[in-house]
Design a protein that fits this description.
Blueprint: H1 5-8, E1 9-13, E2 22-26, H2 37-49, E3 60-64, H3 70-80, E4 83-86, E5 97-101, E6 109-113, H4 114-120, E7 126-134, H5 138-150, E8 156-164, H6 168-176, E9 180-186, H7 192-198, E10 204-207, H8 214-221, E11 229-231, E12 237-239, E13 243-245, E14 248-250, E15 267-268, E16 291-296, E17 299-304, E18 314-315, H9 316-332, E19 341-347, H10 352-363, E20 367-373, E21 390-395, E22 403-407, E23 414-418, H11 426-438, E24 444-447
Parallel strand pairs: 3-4, 3-7, 7-8, 8-9, 10-21, 17-24, 19-20, 19-23, 23-24
Antiparallel strand pairs: 1-2, 4-18, 5-6, 11-12, 13-14, 14-15, 16-17, 21-22
């Protein structure tokens, strides 16, 4: 399938980032904007198609960049039959790292697990870096320089990205270093910053973090919908009633929120037409794995005893088997016959297994959307052509001291959160639960 800049690119404004004031939001990627799973995977497979047949006689390692390109990289590796690993900003126990920086990002530190690269470097012919977007190429050049300084074996490098906005000078630099580039869409970034700054930024900003004092917490959590205030831009308080018009729902249930600006909530459910999936692999043998199901408050929990961690090098075929096994575990424990509209959420870097499961649900004829929580603080705005309208501020499931976000939630029959977060996830889960319930989502399943 051919893609154009108009098909994919929406421009948003980064919050408090002077290094790069705009964010390119890909409407089909499944990170910030809810997407039909098959559309995301079809785009990822189209990127893989640009590489097929190029390196058939070489042993490949595909590296996807956290956090937005982890699913893209995994899908490309699966299509190529390559080994795969992702960069990470999380702590991986008991390993050493190669560190590098992503200069324009709000969270600049990136790292790779050095121990795993040490183990495979002598049999690898080429490393393919996979990104959602390459603008200057500096981050990847930094990564290549670190790898070349660390290892004496000659390694070839390539870069594949959905979008490429590199200028002539950057393209010539890559050509000079014999680094091959592949992309789906060539973009021109000259006007992006100006476009981003022209938006009003007057969308809904909803803080769902649990900062209420313990003695007041139960009172707020148990309050009825009609008692929950919404604060508008002028600071006055009003009560919001539930309404339904043309599938758009305004929800007045505000659990533990600090403030809301321009609280017109775009919470709705629309029909989703299922198209035959490209990337799902059928007839994969099930890997036996113990699991249990329990109730935690109003959240139904499916406990998975072991995750396959793509922060460590994985064989793509084995990773697909793991994802299929995960999906089968989830599907066995859910009453799917009663569910038609379904949201599957990934968390931060953990996207591909959740996207895979979402695609399999869609293959069962369900109306499915997929997206994920993110570290990226993006301005939201009410303009129709702006990509993001409502922002929910959360605590991270991975670190309760970290702020994360999710955008443009809607109302579904069931929401399935799939995460590899470990340890005490209570505060992060509580804030995400508030955001989901704010849009009327009553049936929430946590898979972890």
């Amino acid at each position: 399938m051919m893609y154009t800049e108009q098909d994919l690119v929406r421009i948003a404004r980064r919050e408090n980032n002077n290094k790069r004031k705009y964010l390119v939001v890909n409407r089909l990627q499944g990170k910030h904007i809810p997407v039909r799973p098959h559309e995301a995977l079809s785009m990822f497979c189209a990127l893989a198609d640009t590489l097929k047949g190029k390196y058939e006689n070489e042993t490949l390692l595909v590296i996807g960049f956290a956090e937005t390109a982890t699913a893209v990289g995994a899908a490309v590796a699966a299509e190529l039959g390559a080994d795969y690993m992702q960069t990470t900003r999380e702590a991986v126990p008991g390993v050493s790292y190669l560190y590098f920086s992503e200069e324009h990002s709000h969270a600049t530190e990136q790292k790779l697990v050095k121990d795993d690269i040490d183990r495979v470097i002598n049999r690898i012919d080429r490393i393919i870096f996979v990104e959602d977007e390459v603008t200057t190429g500096k981050t990847i050049l930094n990564s290549i320089a670190i790898l070349q300084n660390q290892y004496t074996k000659p390694i070839k490098f390539s870069v594949a990205s959905i979008l490429n906005g590199m200028d002539k000078t950057a393209l010539e630099t890559y050509q000079k270093h014999d680094i091959e580039l592949f992309w789906l869409v060539k973009t021109e970034h000259a006007t992006y910053a100006e476009t981003a700054e022209a938006y009003k930024g007057d969308g809904s900003y909803i803080v769902c973090k649990n900062d209420i004092e313990p003695e007041n917490r139960s009172t707020v959590q148990n309050a009825s919908e009609s008692d929950m205030p919404v604060t508008n831009q002028t600071g006055s308080k009003r009560l919001q009633k539930d309404e339904s018009e043309d599938g758009i729902h305004s929800i007045g249930q505000m659990h533990n929120m600090e403030h809301i600006h321009s609280a017109e909530h775009r919470c709705g459910t629309e029909g989703i037409n299922h198209t035959e999936q490209r990337c799902s692999i059928e007839n994969i043998s099930h890997t036996e794995r113990r699991y249990s199901i329990e109730k935690t408050g109003q959240i139904e929990c499916i406990k998975i005893n072991q995750h396959m961690d793509a922060r460590r090098i994985v064989n793509a075929a084995e990773y697909i088997k793991y994802c299929e096994s995960l999906y089968q575990d989830i599907a066995r424990q859910m009453e799917l016959d009663s569910i038609q509209n379904l949201l599957v959420l990934g968390t931060e870097e953990y996207m591909y297994p959740a996207l895979y499961a979402a695609d399999r649900f869609e293959g069962q004829g369900k109306n499915v959307r997929f997206h994920a929580t993110t570290r990226s603080p993006v301005t939201v705005s009410t303009e129709n052509d702006y990509p993001l309208h409502t922002r929910y501020e959360l605590r991270s499931l991975y670190d309760s001291n970290r702020t994360t976000y999710i955008y443009d939630l809607q109302k579904y029959d069931t929401v399935v959160i799939i995460t590899d977060a470990e340890g005490d996830i209570g505060e992060g889960l509580s804030s995400l639960d508030r955001a989901l319930k704010l849009c009327g989502n009553g049936h929430i399943v946590l898979v972890h």
